[in-house]
Amino acid sequence: MLTEELSLTEFAKFRDYIYATAGIRLGDHKRLLVSNRIRRRLKATNRGDFGEYYSFLMSPAGRDELPSFLDEITTNETYFFRDRYQYDWLKSKFAPEIAEEAKNGKRNKSLDVWSAACSTGEEPYSIAMSLLDGLSLQKDWRIRIIGTDLSSAVLATGRQGIYNDRSLQLVTEAEKRRYFDNSKDDSRPWAVKSDVKNTVTLQSHNLLLKPKGGPYDCIFIKNVLIYFDDGSRSVVVGHLLSALKPGGYLVVGPSEGIFKMLNGLERLQPWLYRKPIAAQAARPVAAPVLRGFKK
Residues 263, 188: one domain? Predict the structure, then answer.
């Protein structure tokens, strides 16, 4: 008979597995939440109890179950232009700066941005809108924004580019007219326009692994590392710094808990850091190997 809640022993096994595979450290107070979310996977995979599901997850036959398991465990909440001041900087400071560099022959008209842990896509699309607005008087720019997330379910939603009113709570009427069309879905009436979608690629990525792309002119990492401990944060920060171009910017959330790990970067704002032009001056923090995690 299936109990309402994971036993302490069962919870410890799942918690350690989540940490080893995703770097997310869950406190004991999350036991009921994890129990409820795993219960949905028991039903989907026709497993009788938590122990049977854990054995399945650990077996070769359950290898393909990991993405669905992590989809259930991870929490994803976002909306367009969250922390509006960061997008104001992107449009009014960053975009003119790189446009001037291109005008003076210091760079090509090419821009690469990484939105890490992008959830359902609002962040990378907000980045795209800000850059399209900031570079509106410039021609022939290639803008490529890569949005990544661990969850395949939220990425699928992001690729659709269709959103409800709550996701657009901070979007102005002028921005709605410029960057959104009306969709045919009454529950999600807003569809991102094609010129915005064409600049964004959404793909699966585990932050504990080295990114495949880059180097990037700007990286956004917001509201995700608060769920990591110092060990897994330092692994992620090492990957971020390695993927950031010399002179590139790192935009962080206000509570990520990584500020002491960014000593090699120039602090411009509590949420904005820049990698020195001399790449050797910003060496990544030494990253410990997480127990049970294979690089």
Answer: yes
Please report, for the domain that includes residue 97, its CATH number: 3.40.50.150
Whether residue 69 is found in the same domain as residue 140? no
Residue 61 belongs to some domain of the structure? yes
Per-residue exposure over 182-210, b if at least 16 CB sit within 10 Å of its own CB, e if not: ebeeeebbbbbeeebbebbebeebbbbee
Q: Which residues of the chain have pLDDT under 70?
A: 1-3, 75-76, 137, 279-295
pTM for this model (two decimals): 0.81
pLDDT digits (tens, 9 = 90+) for 34-56: 999 999 999 999 999 999 999 99
Q: 78 Cβ partners below 8 Å, 6+ apart? A: 118, 119, 120, 122, 123, 167, 223
Q: CB atoms < 10 A from the CB of 211, how many?
A: 20
Distance CA 173, CA 43 (A): 43
Looking at the fold, whether 104 and 162 belong to one and the same domain comes out as yes
Asked whether residue 240 falls in the same domain as residue 165, the answer is yes
Active-site residue numbers? 37, 149
Contact predicate 221/240, CB 8 Å: yes
| Residue 79 is assigned to a structural domain of this protein | no
In the chain, how many H helices and how many E strands?
11, 10
Q: What is the identity of the amino acid at 217?
A: D
